[in-house]
Amino acid sequence: MRHLMNPLDFSTEELDDLFRLADDILLHEERYAHRCDGKILATCFYEPSTRTRLSFESAMLKLGGQVLGFASADSSSAAKGESVSDTIRIISCYADICAIRHPKEGAALVAAQKSRIPVINAGDGGHQHPTQTLTDLMTIHALKGQFSDMTIGLCGDLKFGRTVHSLIEALKRYANVHFIFISPEELRIPGYIREDVLERGHIPFEEVRRLEDVMPKLDILYMTRVQRERFFNEEDYVRLKDYYILNREKMALAKQDMMVLHPLPRVNEISVEVDTDPRAKYFEQVQYGVYVRMALILTLLELI
Ligand code: CP
Question: Taking the complete model, does pTM exceed 0.70, yes or no?
Fold first, then answer.
């Protein structure tokens, strides 16, 4: 039995297989409409979500399976004090596969250790969000056709943004990837990513504050929101939340084939005027997330 906790749980060859499968599903969705007949996906979300939970549910329904679950800790027995370990034992009796989101780092791993069914980390605190990374990679694969030889700017809350941490882990494995981290001092990438992942792996990167200065160099700009829910005080959040706002003026500095991604939700960091720029791909990104999650469910359930 296999779980997905971290993007590194899949080799680059396995990722290629996953994206090939997602491509085939995209082209021939009808062929997959009954692959999960009789199977149940549980979505156990202890934190709010629109995309991740609903795209998992959409993915399972499109595969012919069924879904059950809870959308907040308050609507589950977590509110009565039940542990994640006990909950996953219960869910293992009801479902064939489980996607779990939890505000505590490592909660998905705790669940996986006690589970009798495959567990997918759908976001654990400020740590990892591997299926967002699959979505991001699927979008890059579909629209750029390569992962290597690129300069990738990651902008915003790089400290708490788990999608950023997962994407760095995944992309560091490809040749000639250069990272530019764009953030205020307080929201720089965590030390463990800088030292253990990048420096130890001899991955080239730079850290800057001004987005304008690096826009012309970028092949991909990955924008992120400031993660209000992970701040210790509201004052710091208010001070930092509008530090970056991507607008038409800044887009004018970028290459014509640069691509803007964002895991969403967007708050204020991308002006709506950018949405009509052909380089803005964040809404297409959402659609790829369904196909890649369909491919992931089939892979973990060994139904391919
Ligand atoms: N990208 C993402 O994780 O969105 P949700 O929080 O809406 O699931």
Answer: yes
